[in-house]
Amino acid sequence: MNLPNKLTMFRIFLIPVFLILLAAPIDAGSVYVLGTLISITQLLAAIVFIVAALTDFLDGQIARRDHLVTNFGKFADPLADKMIVMSAFIMLVGSGSENVAAWIAAVIVCRELAVTGLRLIIVENDGEVVAAAWSGKVKTFFEMIAVIILLLNDVIFNNFGIPMGQICLYIALVAAVYSGVEYFVKNKRVFSDSF
Predict the structure, then answer these.
(1) pLDDT less than 50: residues of the chain
(2) Other residues' Cβ atoms within 10 Å of the Cβ of residue 161
(3) What is the CATH number of the domain that holds 126?
(4) Fewer CB in a 10 Å sphere around the end CB: N or C, the chain?
């Protein structure tokens, strides 16, 4: 297994760690980070999420630079992203966060499931894995930034009254819908025998 794929597997391993930290019933206290009060478990979860986001950036860069792009990587990398981002949104909604509306999380989760299903059909029909499109990468970037900022209670931006977490979340929502539609339009031939 090459280094980019190891980084992807490491990101998948971080998902249960992230979930345990967010679901932990133990109150470990809170700390001030740049003037914003954040629970210690939430801060640790944010750090784990940041590490996962960095591995997402690194594995793609290394794979392209060293010509280590594999079908496993093209499949597992976006899957790992979807798993950790969907987990984060579901946990934020479940925690009662008023910054993440359930309907936004539902739209994003539905888009992820639909695109993953489409990718599986393409693999079955064509034998090739569809790499993430540019619009999907923009979506993932804003999803990850939104999750980090929301986990950190809008740290820095909170001092200026700017709901940056929600702004990034709405950008991610628009990018999710756009990229989902783009995937289906570009691959409509897959369904040509159904109509």
Answers:
(1) none
(2) 7
(3) 1.20.120.1760
(4) C
